[in-house]
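Priority: low. Protein: (2Fe-2S)-binding protein. Input follows.
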Amino acid sequence: MKCAIKFIVHYEGRIYFLESNNSEYRNLMSLLKDKICPEDFGQCGGMGRCGTCLVKISRGSSDSEMFYRNEHETLRKIGIVDPEIRLSCQIHVNEGLKNVVVQLLDNN
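Result:
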C-alpha cells in the first residue's frame, strides 16, 4: 500500500499543496520542476553544483540533516549558512517530507 507524502510549497506568492509517493521522483528538485515548473531551476540537473534549486525546509524533514555529494561545498561557496536552506536536488522524496513547508528561494 502506497502512502501519499503531502507537503506545502510556497513559490512566487502562491501556495501549492503537493502530493507524491515514496521515491516517485528521484529528488525534490525533479518533483518541483514537474509540478510547479519554476524558471531557471536546477541548472546542473541534480549534481549539487549550481545552487539554482535552493529551498528552505521548515518543520524539519528527517532528511534535512543528511547532505549528499557536493551540497556542503556548493552552499558554502554561495554563502549559505542557514541549516534550513538546502539544494532540492539533494533531498529525497520520502516520508521525511511529510507535512513540511518548502519555500523556493531565488538563486540570484
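The mean pLDDT is 87. Helices lie at 28-35, 71-77.
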